[in-house]
Structures are given as structure tokens and as C-alpha cells.
UniProtKB/TrEMBL annotation:
One Gene Ontology cellular component annotation held by this UniProt entry: plasma membrane
The organism of origin for this protein: Thalassovita taeanensis
Sequence intervals crossing the membrane: 6-22
Protein name: Sec translocon accessory complex subunit YajC
InterPro entries documented for this protein: Preprotein_translocase_YajC (IPR003849)
GO biological process, one term: protein transport
Location within or outside the cell: Cell membrane
Membrane topology: Single-pass membrane protein
Assembly and interaction partners: Part of the SecDF-YidC-YajC translocase complex. The SecDF-YidC-YajC translocase forms a supercomplex with SecYEG, called the holo-translocon (HTL).
């Protein structure tokens, strides 16, 4: 019975750490991943390096092409996109 009393503070500390640190970080990571997977041509983005540009091409699962200025295009790893400033509307389907 006394052994359980010794472990109770340790269990409480782990529970507090989980709810204050681990869970919010996992939620933030999940939101970032969904933002990155939803990127498409025409979206205006900010990279983690602070560059602002427009997505000109989504190359594959891990890479996009961002146009920083007219005629200046750079390849960027998707996970380095920090924020999407403006999203483009999806093209209307012809019916």
C-alpha cells in the first residue's frame, strides 16, 4: 500500500507534463501536416526562412516550387513552409 503512495507524485507529474507539453505539441504538428498536404498552386506562403512567395508548382510529396518574384523560382521542401497567407479557390468543375 505504501509503495503506491510513493509512485503517486511521479504519476501526477507525468500526467501534468503530458497535458501541458506533449499533447499540445502533437496537435500543432498534426495541424502543420494537414496545412502542408493541402498546399496547391497559387497559394501564397511564408517559409521558415522568412521568404514570401507564391506556389507555382507542387512537384511531388516532399517538394514544391515557389515563385519569389517574377521569374525567380526556388524549390522548397514542403515541411519548411511556416504559414499559408492566402489560399486559392479550387477550380470549378465543368458540369
Amino acid at each position: 500500500m505504501q509503495a503506491y503512495g510513493q509512485f503517486l507524485p511521479l504519476i501526477l507529474i507525468f500526467a501534468i507534463m503530458y497535458f501541458l507539453l506533449i499533447r499540445p505539441q502533437q496537435k500543432k504538428l498534426k495541424e502543420h501536416q494537414s496545412m502542408v498536404t493541402a498546399l496547391r498552386r497559387g497559394d501564397q506562403v511564408i517559409t521558415q526562412g522568412g521568404l514570401i512567395g507564391k506556389v507555382s508548382k507542387v512537384k511531388d510529396d516532399n517538394e514544391i516550387e515557389v515563385e519569389l518574384a517574377e521569374g525567380v523560382k526556388v524549390r522548397v521542401v514542403k515541411s519548411t513552409i511556416a504559414q499559408v497567407i492566402s489560399k486559392t479557390e479550387p477550380a470549378a468543375a465543368n458540369t
